[in-house]
Amino acid sequence: MTAPDPPQASRHDVHRAIDAVWRIESARVVAGLVRMVRDIDLAEELAQDALVSALERWPRDGVPDNPGAWLMATAKHRAIDRLRRGKLLQRKHEQLAHELEDEQSDAAARAESARDAELDGGIGDDLLRLLFIACHPLLSTEAQVALTLRLLGGLTTAEIARAFLVPEATIAQRIVRAKRTLAQARVPFEVPRGEQLDARLGAVLAVLYLVFNEGYAATAGDDWMRPQLCEEAMRLGRILAGLMPRTAEVHGLLALMEIQASRIHARTGPAGEPVLLLDQDRARWDRLLIRRGLAALERAQQLGGGAGPYALQAAIAACHARALAPGDTDWPRIAALYAALARLAPSPVVELNRAVAVSMASGPAAGLAIVEAIAADPVLQAYHLLPSVRADLLAKLGRSDEARAEFARAAALARNARERELLLGRAAACD
Q1: pLDDT bracket for residue 107 (50, 70, 90)
Q2: Domain contains 274
Q3: Is the pLDDT of residue 98 over 70?
Q4: Residue ranges of the RNA polymerase sigma factor 70 region 4 type domain (predicted)?
Q5: Mean pLDDT, residues 333-345
Q6: For residue 352, which of 383, 319, 314 has the smallest C-alpha distance?
Q7: Domain's final residue, options 123, 139, 171
Q8: Is the separation of the CB atoms in 355 and 389 below 8 Å?
Q9: For the chain, first and last CA: distance in Å?
Q10: How far is CA 308 from the centre of its chain?
């Protein structure tokens, strides 16, 4: 007798659960498969096959107790089948089958992890291994970051394009070409050592920061944040800090992420609506993360890296973290730190942030002057925070009609549903 189809509502719930699980687990699944099959395209294909299988079976059988392990086991079974169909070496068949059997035993899995750690110079982590592979010097910096965000961040091509402020087609081309380059060069799937490790660090830090930012303020979708991405970026950042304890910018980035993450619980209201920085209940800020972040910032400064780009941004975040109330914020210092960051790494986005700090330190007119100076920059034309900041400054100057129009323009450019609602609400408040 055929079992009846589950009710539509429950099917919908299961599909939402699958989507959530995939967001969290896809990077681990792909990273584990890459270690096995030594082919990024094949690993992604096998991971997608496992997702399709989940979409077929979970609505009927229910979501398993450990969905991530289910996805990985399914993908690995498919990997073994694919390799057998391809008539590869029997030794490889036995290796993969043995690995699958090992993972069914906790003791064997721990032993395998220890062996991997020894072979990789102390790093027994598939995600970190894949991170450095994707940041291979054969690839341009832009391609390194785009590929790693796709593989480890689980971000769509559209989300990555938003992070880069470039067309989606450009990012798609970068990812395809990057994978092709790695495959043609037969890049070994291992963690680099020595000078090669140092050479790839800049791209790795950029990747972690963009992954964190996507979690901290999601570019699209119905949720204001995706905290699991913040957690993953911080986890990898802590591993990097352990691997490179005397590299200042690693500690600077870790400090920045941990101080920013301390605000996560205060950044949304009861219904998931965004709560802006100056309106947040600072009692809800995570003091442990703040202490950890300040300690990492101090470490970066002790190592002589206090003027690095991530350490400067961490110092800005620290100004907010140390202020028990919004009125206690040292805005002149924040403006000065943004000016130093603009000299070190010129960017219209940095200038936009400096405009906000200057407006708080010296008045909205001073901030608006900076905004107007960069308003025509092509990089900012599709960036919703440009009209959003301009609208806020116009509202403070009493120019309500102009402010309302700018808030509406910002809402039209925003792709995150929560952020769009916030901007539309601020436009309505101008009346």
Answers
A1: very low
A2: yes
A3: no
A4: 131-182
A5: 97
A6: 383
A7: 123
A8: yes
A9: 63
A10: 21
Alpha carbons 17 and 39: distance in angstroms, whole number: 28
Tell me the per-residue pLDDT of 170-184, one tens digit each, with 9 for 90 and over: 999 999 999 999 989
Which is higher by pLDDT, 195 or 116? 195
Q: What DSSP state is assigned to residue 185? A: T
**Cβ atoms within 10 A of the Cβ of 190, count?**
14
Helix (H, G, I), strand (E, B) or coil at 429: helix
Q: Which residues have a Cβ under 8 Å from the Cβ of 52 and sit 6 or more positions away?
A: none
* Residue of 175, 199, 301 whose CA lies nearest to 249: 301
Considering the domain architecture, whether residues 117 and 181 belong to the same structural domain is answered as: no
* Residue pointed to by tokens 């894949």: 130
* Structural domain containing residue 206: 125-185+200-219
pLDDT tens, position by position, 13-46: 777 788 778 777 888 888 888 888 888 888 888 9
Integer Cα distance of 269 and 95 in angstroms:
51
Q: Are 380 and 374 in contact (CB under 8 A)?
A: yes
Nearest-angstrom CA–CA distance, 126 and 108: 17
- Whether 117 and 90 map to the same domain: the answer is yes
Q: Does residue 149 contact residue 207 with C-beta atoms inside 8 Å?
A: yes
Q: Is the pLDDT of residue 113 over 90?
A: no
Residue 257: closest CA among 295, 219, 314: 314
Query: Which of these three, 293, 324, 355, is where a domain ends?
Result: 324
Go through 131-154 and write b for each residue having 16 or more CB atoms within 10 A of its CB, e for each that does not.
Answer: bbbbbbeebeebbbbbbbbbbbbb
Instruction: Flag whether the pTM goes above 0.85.
Output: no
pLDDT, tens digit, 9 for 90 and up, residues 298-318: 999 999 989 999 999 999 999
Q: pLDDT category, 99, cuts 50, 70, 90? A: low
